[in-house]
C-alpha cells in the first residue's frame, strides 16, 4: 500500500476557486500541499455562478452538498428582455433535471468561495504571501515568498489567473529552449469589459423579488447600444448585477494599460468603475413588481467596495505544463463569460489533477511528465468545447446583423434542438476516484473521465489490500 511519503508534495500558487478546490480535494486524498495567495484576504467580489450536475456530485463526495443548498437559489429559467422590457422567450433549464436528476442553482461567487475555503485547514493556505521566484534543483521545485520563506515540493500548480506569474516563469524556460509556440507568446485578447456588483441586504417589502424561493435571473439586450446586463436575487436577500460592454473589436490589455499586478485580487480587482456606472445608470431592469427601475437604483444600493470592473480575456493556451510546472483554470484557458463555464472548467481541472496526483505510482520526473500529458489530453477537448460554446453564445450580444441573427436563432430554437444542446452540456460530470462514487442517475450517461478511472483503480486496490491485512 502506498503511503503519504509516496505522494508528491504540491505547491499551489493562487487561491481562486480552482486553486482552492484543488487544495480541498488534496486534503481529502491525503496528498500533501500548500496554497500561496498574494492577497491578504480574498475580497467578496464577483457576481454569481450557475452550478448543476457538472459539480454537484463532487459536492456530495466532499459532504458539502447540503450546505451548498442553503446558499444557492434554485434556477429553472433565464428570463430574457429587450431593452424596451418587451419579454422574449425564456431559456428553459429544466430538461437538465431529467438528464441528470440534479437541479440547476445560482450561487453568489463569494458564498461558494467561503464554502470551499472552509474545507482547507488555515495552516495550509498562506494569504498575503507573494511568490517572488521559483527554482528547480535536485528533482525538487522551491517557491520563494515575499517574506523570505521558502517551500519545497515536487510539483508547482499555477492557479494564479489569466496573467499567471507561474505561466510566465514556465514560458521563460520554454522560450530559452526554443520550445514555446508562437501563439503562446501573443498578448491575451479581449472584446468585452464587465461591471459587477452586489447590493446590500434589501427590504423585502420594497423588493418582493428577493422573497422568491427560486432565482429570478434576467438577461437584458441593448437595442441601440453595445451592452447586455443581468440581475438576479440571492439567498441572503441581495440582488447581484452584471453589465457587459461589447467592444467593436478585440484588443489587449497591454495595448491599453499596464497590468495592475500589485493590486490584490487582480482578476476581480478595484479597477476604476465609476465611469461605467454613470454610463449605464439609466438602463432599465424588470424585478416583477411593476415598479420602473434602472441599474442606477441598484448601483445606489451597492457598497462601493463591492463594485468592480474587469476586462474579459479569451484564449486557450497551447502549453499547459513543462517539467514540474502545470497550469490550471484561467492560467491556461480564459473563456468568454457568455457560456458561464470559466469557473466550472477551472474546477474540473482541479478534479482531474487531484485524481492524477492521487494515482501517481511515484514522484519521479518521468511520472510527473506522464500525468501532466494525461491531464491536458483529458481536459483540452472539454475546454475547447466550452470555449467554442462561449464564443457562440457571445455572438447573441454582438452588434449588427450577426448579433441580430444569433439572437433570433437562440430565441426561436426548436425544443428538440435545445434539448440536444443541454444534453451535450451535462456530459461532463467527473467524480473523485479516491472517494466512494455517487450513484449515476438521469438519462444522459456522463463522459468517461480517464483520471477518475485511474484514481478509482488505485483506491479499490488499496481498499482490498486493507481488508486482507
TrEMBL record:
Keyword Flavoprotein in record: yes
Question: Molecular function terms in GO for this entry?
Answer: FAD binding; monooxygenase activity
**Highest taxon listed in the record's lineage:** Eukaryota
Which UniProt keywords are present, listed alphabetically? FAD, Flavoprotein, Oxidoreductase
Asked if the record carries the keyword RNA-binding, the reply is: no
Alphabetical list of InterPro entries matching this protein: FAD-bd, FAD/NAD-bd_sf, FAD_mOase_fung
Span of domain FAD-binding = 9-175, 300-385
The family note in this entry says:
Belongs to the paxM FAD-dependent monooxygenase family.
Protein's name in the database: FAD/NAD(P)-binding domain-containing protein
Amino acid at each position: 500500500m502506498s503511503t503519504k511519503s509516496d505522494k508528491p508534495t504540491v505547491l499551489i500558487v493562487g487561491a481562486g476557486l480552482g486553486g482552492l478546490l484543488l487544495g480541498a480535494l488534496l486534503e481529502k486524498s491525503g496528498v500533501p500541499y500548500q496554497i500561496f495567495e498574494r492577497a491578504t484576504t480574498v475580497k467578496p467580489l464577483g457576481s454569481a455562478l450557475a452550478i448543476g450536475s457538472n459539480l454537484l456530485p463532487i459536492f456530495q463526495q466532499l459532504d458539502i452538498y447540503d450546505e451548498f443548498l442553503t446558499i444557492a437559489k434554485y434556477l429553472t429559467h433565464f428570463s430574457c428582455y429587450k431593452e424596451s422590457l418587451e419579454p422574449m422567450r425564456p431559456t428553459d433549464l429544466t430538461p437538465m433535471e431529467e438528464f441528470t436528476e440534479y437541479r440547476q442553482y445560482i450561487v453568489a461567487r463569494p458564498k461558494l468561495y467561503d464554502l470551499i475555503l472552509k474545507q482547507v485547514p488555515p495552516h495550509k493556505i498562506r494569504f498575503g504571501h507573494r511568490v517572488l521566484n521559483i527554482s528547480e534543483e535536485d528533482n525538487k521545485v522551491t517557491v520563494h515568498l515575499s517574506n523570505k520563506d521558502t517551500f519545497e515540493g515536487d510539483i508547482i500548480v499555477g492557479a494564479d489567473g489569466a496573467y499567471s506569474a507561474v505561466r510566465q516563469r514556465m514560458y521563460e524556460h520554454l522560450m530559452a529552449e526554443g520550445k514555446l509556440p508562437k501563439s503562446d507568446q501573443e498578448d491575451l485578447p479581449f472584446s468585452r469589459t464587465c461591471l459587477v456588483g452586489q447590493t446590500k441586504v434589501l427590504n423585502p417589502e420594497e423588493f418582493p423579488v428577493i422573497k422568491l424561493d427560486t432565482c429570478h435571473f434576467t438577461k437584458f439586450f441593448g437595442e441601440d447600444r453595445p451592452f447586455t446586463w443581468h440581475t438576479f436575487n440571492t439567498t441572503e436577500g441581495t440582488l447581484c448585477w452584471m453589465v457587459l460592454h461589447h467592444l467593436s473589436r478585440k484588443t489587449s490589455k497591454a495595448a491599453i494599460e499596464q497590468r495592475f499586478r500589485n493590486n490584490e485580487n487582480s482578476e476581480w480587482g478595484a479597477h476604476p468603475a465609476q465611469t461605467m456606472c454613470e454610463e449605464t445608470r439609466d438602463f432599465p431592469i424588470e424585478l416583477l413588481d411593476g415598479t420602473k427601475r434602472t441599474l442606477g437604483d441598484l448601483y445606489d444600493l451597492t457598497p462601493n467596495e463591492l463594485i468592480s470592473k474587469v476586462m474579459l480575456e479569451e484564449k486557450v493556451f497551447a502549453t499547459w505544463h513543462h517539467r514540474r510546472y502545470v497550469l490550471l483554470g484561467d492560467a491556461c484557458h480564459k473563456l468568454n463569460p457568455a457560456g458561464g463555464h470559466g469557473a466550472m472548467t477551472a474546477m474540473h481541472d482541479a478534479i482531474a489533477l487531484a485524481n492524477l496526483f492521487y494515482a501517481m505510482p511515484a514522484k519521479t520526473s518521468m511520472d510527473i511528465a506522464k500525468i501532466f500529458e494525461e491531464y491536458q489530453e483529458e481536459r483540452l477537448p472539454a475546454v475547447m468545447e466550452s470555449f467554442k460554446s462561449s464564443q457562440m453564445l457571445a455572438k447573441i450580444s454582438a452588434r449588427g446583423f450577426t448579433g441580430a441573427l444569433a439572437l433570433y436563432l437562440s430565441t426561436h430554437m426548436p425544443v428538440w434542438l435545445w434539448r440536444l444542446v443541454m444534453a451535450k452540456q451535462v456530459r461532463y460530470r467527473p467524480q473523485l476516484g479516491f472517494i466512494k462514487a455517487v450513484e449515476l442517475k438521469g438519462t444522459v450517461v456522463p463522459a468517461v473521465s480517464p483520471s477518475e478511472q485511474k484514481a478509482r483503480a488505485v483506491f479499490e486496490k488499496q481498499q482490498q489490500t486493507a481488508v486482507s491485512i
